[in-house]
Amino acid sequence: xxxxxxxxxxxxxxxxxxxxxxxxxxxxxxxxxxxxxxxxxxxxxxxxxxxxxxxxxxxxxxxxxxxxxxxxxxxxxxxxxxxxxxxxxxxxxxxxxxxxxxxxxxxxxxxxxxxxxxxxxxxxxxxxxxxxxxxxxxxxxxxxxxxxxxxxxxxxxxxxxxxxxxxxxxxxxxxxxxxxxxxxxxxxxxxxxxxxxxxxxxxxxxxxxxxxxxxxxxxxxxxxxxxxxxxxxxxxxxxxxxxxxxxxxxxxxxxxxxxxxxxxxxxxxxxxxxxxxxxxxxxxxxxxxxxxxxxxxxxxxxxxxxxxxxxxxxxxxxxxxxxxxxxxxxxxxxxxxxxxxxxxxxxxxxxxxxxxxxxxxxxxxxxxxxxxxxxxxxxxxxxxxxxxxxxxxxxxxxxxxxxxxxxxxxxxxxxxxxxxxxxxxxxxxxxxxxxxxxxxxxxxxxxxxxxxxxxxxxxxxxxxxxxxxxxxxxxxxxxxxxxxxxxxxxxxxxxxxxxxxxxxxxxxxxxxxxxxxxxxxxxxxxxxxxxxxxxxxxxxxxxxxxxxxxxxxxxxxxxxxxxxxxxxxxxxxxxxxxxxxxxxxxxxxxxxxxxxxxxxxxxxxxxxxxxxxxxxxxxxxxxxxxxxxxxxxxxxxxxxxxxxxxxxxxxxxxxxxxxxxxxxxxxxxxxxxxxxxxxxxxxxxxxxxxxxxxxxxxxxxxxxxxxxxxxxxxxxxxxxxxxxxxxxxxxxxxxxxxxxxxxxxxxxxxxxxxxxxxxxxxxxxxxxxxxxxxxxxxxxxxxxxxxxxxxxxxxxxxxxxxxxxxxxxxxxxxxxxxxxxxxxxxxxxxxxxxxxxxxxxxxxxxxxxxxxxxxxxxxxxxxxxxxxxxxxxxxxxxxxxxxxxxxxxxxxxxxxxxxxxxxxxxxxxxxxxxxxxxxxxxxxxxxxxxxxxxxxxxxxxxxxxxxxxxxxxxxxxxxxxxxxxxxxxxxxxxxxxxxx
Length: 980
Prior knowledge:
Elements: H1 21-28, E1 31-32, E2 35-36, H2 41-49, H3 53-67, H4 71-80, H5 82-92, H6 96-104, H7 123-130, H8 136-163, H9 172-197, E3 204-210, H10 212-215, E4 225-233, H11 235-252, E5 256-257, E6 270-271, H12 273-282, H13 286-292, E7 296-300, H14 302-316, H15 325-338, H16 356-370, H17 382-391, H18 397-421, H19 434-443, H20 454-477, H21 480-486, H22 490-493, H23 498-507, H24 512-523, H25 528-545, H26 550-563, H27 570-576, H28 578-588, H29 593-598, H30 611-615, H31 624-630, H32 636-659, H33 665-690, E8 696-702, H34 704-707, E9 717-725, H35 731-749, E10 760-761, E11 774-776, H36 777-786, H37 790-796, E12 800-804, H38 806-820, H39 828-844, H40 863-877, H41 889-898, H42 904-928, H43 939-948, H44 955-976
Parallel strand pairs: 4-5, 4-6, 9-10, 9-11
Antiparallel strand pairs: 1-2, 3-4, 3-7, 8-9, 8-12
Catalytic activity: [glutamine synthetase]-O(4)-(5'-adenylyl)-L-tyrosine + phosphate = [glutamine synthetase]-L-tyrosine + ADP; [glutamine synthetase]-L-tyrosine + ATP = [glutamine synthetase]-O(4)-(5'-adenylyl)-L-tyrosine + diphosphate
Region (Adenylyl transferase): 489-980
EC number: 2.7.7.89, 2.7.7.42
């Protein structure tokens, strides 16, 4: 059987499937002998593009009957006029309600034939003229007729491009503006009628304030029109006038809703200006200021309406200062969402998840928070405000564009749904309602694509846009920065005034004039970058004020911002991630170490938004990515540069996590140690690769804190180098080759740089600085057998293999074990010698003028005290206590305690002192940005160190606590180490 749709002579060719299609076409004179009549092809093709061709044809047939003898005129106009053809068939194929209107008033088709776009300026004159001199039912009928005719004209222009692509496309914003202007004209006409119907109307003045979508000029085809009334004179008369206007407009055009007035439906319909002002100043809730954002006078007394705005607008733009303002708005949105019936949330265009309210609440909240300082944002239109938020940097450009496109798409769907029967609906068709989906898709200008039906194209686009809206809503509406900005007083948002300087001084800035200069430099000009800075700085200033050094923090922020000015994601990250702003302020206001690295490793800034990423992986594996990356470079200089860059990033990450209190001390020390090891290994591998033939194998032995995995931010890398000749190579040639390699490694790592130094210290080697830099394993064996001194055995306690040839490194460790763990321990003379050396170190190496009670390394109870005590116990007892054979101070104390060599209380005192001194020494470096062992005892450096140590409120208490802790440890050391 032949498919009718493929038969050239079937109406199905034009998308007509109705059983009476051919009969209706013949009655219209468009079909004869199973084919279109001459001149009717264009009409039938236009019908085929209508959202519902069958519905459009039925409308034509009804209109033909209603016109009677007038049909030939319309028929000729449709044959000759593409504008009328597109408009009429689009309306008839979309809206049964507007088809009913045209059938009831058949001559009104002429209003659709004017090729010029509809002019909103004629709305009020036409409607007012229609009711001129009329009252009661006559006025209502006249107003309804003209209102519906103009509404039909707007709809016809809105839809025409769907039927005829060459017709002018009318954007959503223009359609919403026209509908709003028409509603305003209807209100004015209704007020004109009321003025005649209410006795003594001249005894009062009444201003009609549009709210909601009408106030914002973004009205739907079918919507309540929200208003508020302001009156003067006889309020009784004004109330009757307002009530009558609402009644006339409600019967003729749309429901007028005054529920947004003070006290809602329970409040007076009309209030004086003073009454409004008093209410909003004393009793209004947060949502009422949100509603006032869209208020504008539209009818009645213009001067009274203007005075109303002068009163309420300052209140609107101060509303964000109210306690819990942002949470209140967020809670209101959640309550609205909770009222959506179960099962309809995904189809509710207005109130559901990913619906219109998601966009509107987010935009309004951003306006109310940021509009206090940026007057450009003080506009009622959602789409226009969104564009300004994007242009001003309060929202990302892409986010603003996506939000705007999704909002316009959803509003267009809402318009098309309401046009069908002119009912106030926001419910998207069910997934299985194919006919309704197809009609809506075609009405929205969506068609089948690549084998996908129009209804499926619509479903895909709808879900995409709804998901997009919800994602952006949650990103923007619940942005932590909003609450932080809202907490800043409005006057503090104006950053260049004298009042701002006074506020900065009150916040604790020592040099408010200097701070203002930084602010001015960051916000100068009208660029998007300057606008974003203008939004961020008030929050940052408050956050920095809670840090030990607000002035230094602001200067550091300026340096970082200027260094990253061309980094596209920098300000976007600060704007969108409140956690980043909080953490960055804390870091910059405490540390000089962090900003120095941050300008050269900005990638770490992103980690501040993700605690897990900032804390990082297992510190024992931290060097693996660095080694892997560097191994891919064949060029020596590039390999070392890459190693430096990756070290810089890891240093900054660890320092940031450390200062923010996110990682324990062990993680910090192990991470710093393993990063150093990875850099050394990477550099050694790169030099060996570039050296050509390998004459000898090389192993690097970590010593000191590097060997114990207890490195600090300012620690050098103490190492020994051992080599072994390749087969057939003389020891001297091997040592010469290895020395050349090692010297090159040291030179590359020690090259001048702004980063913390990479100093490789080999002074603990046999014969110290006078001895060869690299020895063979046999040479070490001979030296330790004949010449080594007691201090060398002590130094070897912390030796461990860290880089190079692992097998050679392990043989070196086996070689030195008998030296550092002497059989039988130490005799009394050796113990006295160690004590003598320690006393000499205390007397000679403590810097002149240093305070021994606060010197973290050599002071009383400091690092050296604890470490020498543990090392003495290791030399005495490690031969019989295997657990003492560890390069770690921490594990050494634990092993000595378990072996009964020291009491648990003494061990606790030693560990508390060692941990405190290590953390304090690290804190000094982080605060000052340079190495240092002496704790500051006054000023902002002390406050910053105390803050980093967990004493943000009382630096003096921190110093007292440090001294108490080290005094207790010193007492233990006197007994355990010195035998007192």
